[in-house]
Design goal:
CATH architecture of the largest domain: Up-down Bundle
Shape: elongated
CATH class of the largest domain: Mainly Alpha
Number of helices: 14
Largest sheet: 7 strands, mixed
Strand content: 5-15%
Order of helices and strands: HHHHHHHHHHHEHEHEEEEHE
Helix content: 55-70%
Number of strands: 7
Amino acid sequence: MTEAIERCDVTESDWLAERFEAHRTHLTAVAFRMLGSLSEADDAVQEAWLRFSRADSSDVENLGGWLTTIVARVSLDLLRSRRSRREEPHGSDLPKPAFGRDDGTDPEQEAVLADSVGLAMLVVLDTLTPAERLSFVLHDMFAVPFDEIAPIVGRSPGAARQLASRARRRVQGADTTSEVDVRRQREVVDAFLTASRGGNFAALLALLDPDVVVRSDEAAVLVGAAAEVRSATAVAETFVGRARAAKPALIDGAPGAVWAPGGEPRVVFAFTVAAGKIVGIEMLADPDRLRELTVAILDD
């Protein structure tokens, strides 16, 4: 009798696992766009599995939507926790960079996910508040109605719509592709490099969005870069008097900078500019990632 019960439990567990696995790819995509990190996305999906396996889902009509809501709630909690840690007094431990390689994640899968969103998009998403990011990602990227988003963020549907609208304006403000915009972006990046080299702290502050974020991949961290720096003041303090060896460059067609001793790119600085301000800088030093980029070094 005991053996029969155990077989029944195993069968039910396998059935639940099959139902969940059918949605894993979608759930990972949602979590990645929410968190910008494959390792954290995997953690969120795993937590969703634990909640799913413990809950009674027999009456759930839309399992995919239900699981998406669970992942969104878990991701929102992680975003809020991450933001809280970043607001601790100076000197507290900074979070690990999003693009790690020693955490058991699949670099190829992470690259595919990142390419599907876009490096600049990930940087801009990271400047949003957790509620703005969730509302924008769920509605604009996954077509989740505001009636379903509202209870997740603890707001009314109208307020959730406003959150997504604010986020959309921020994202669209960074979506600059015309020749004029590229020229303007290059002016901003060139001014940043000049102010950095000249130690002009005030000029750096004037070029940075108040919520600017600098993120470094693991390879850059290993050679001394901070994993993450937030706020205009902190970023200006990081770059003032530096960047003397950095050259202006086009990174996949977008203005940026590169440290390239002997003409070989070693560190790439990918800038995201919105409304004339720098909202994000990605420092990339992973050789595999650099080989995927098109880097054109420009004259100073």
